[in-house]
Specification:
The protein is mostly helical. Helices cover 55% and strands 10% of the residues. Strands 2-4-3 form a 3-stranded mixed β-sheet. Strands 1-5 form a two-stranded parallel ribbon. A hairpin with a 4-residue loop joins strand 3 (65-70) and strand 4 (75-80). Helix 3 packs across helix 4 and helix 5 (90-105) crosses helix 7 (128-142). The relative contact order is 0.17. The model has no long low-confidence stretch (mean pLDDT 92). The structure holds zinc ion.
Length: 205
């Protein structure tokens, strides 16, 4: 089960904690506000631990990113691949970081940490609901649909330009937006997001 209201409210809370809303959203700035969460690149992690990038990819079971949870101390380490190979453009890196932050904010890791403890503490997060939730979190955090109208988002290209996500993610988000406009039921969350944006002020790229 995907916990949509929970995800949306976590994003709202993050927006409420911002001084100003500056697009594109930089997940690093949000992560730095969590005292128990650090973020490093695969490259930094490899250097610190004297291993290869390939080792980090194997450890993470991902070429793009992963999150380590230290259950004893309730601390997180987000790792992301800063390599530009494989079309890993800045928009994709931003998405990866937002996705991993989603696993932290939505508290996925404590939920799955127990059976993984015997291993190395890295959770492969195979649970597909968690992956969907983390992507939903990333999409809502980076490209919040309640703000599209006030930001005059009228095409996938506008999404890419304002929110700094990849071409692929922009197209996908635009398709979601068309459906959302047609089928959504208005919620307090939608109004709350708009109100927060108007109170804080928005800075565009
Ligand atoms: Zn994930």
């Amino acid at each position: 089960m995907i916990r949509y209201p929970f995800i949306y409210n976590q994003v709202l809370q993050i927006y409420r904690d911002m001084e100003q809303i500056r697009f594109p959203i930089e997940p690093d700035n949000i992560i730095s506000r969590f005292s128990n969460c650090r973020i490093r690149t695969y490259q930094q992690f490899a250097q610190t631990n004297g291993c290869s990038i390939r080792d980090v990819i194997l450890l993470c079971e991902s070429k793009s990113g992963c999150t380590h949870y230290d259950v004893a101390n309730n601390r997180y380490l987000i790792l992301w691949n800063s390599d530009n190979a494989d079309n890993n453009v800045s928009g994709r890196k931003r998405w990866t970081k937002a996705h991993e932050l989603g696993h932290v904010v939505l508290k996925h890791l404590p939920l799955v940490a127990e059976p993984m403890l015997a291993e190395h503490g890295f959770c492969p997060m195979e649970t597909s609901d968690f992956e969907i939730e983390a992507d939903q979190f990333a999409a809502t955090l980076l490209c919040p649909m309640p703000l599209f109208a006030m930001l005059e988002i009228k095409s996938p290209l506008d999404i890419q330009r304002v929110f700094g996500v990849s071409n692929e993610a922009s197209n996908h988000r635009w398709d979601e937006y068309i459906k959302w406009l047609r089928y959504r039921r208005k919620t307090a969350w939608e109004n709350d997001m708009k109100r927060v944006a108007m109170q804080k002020g928005i800075i565009l790229p």
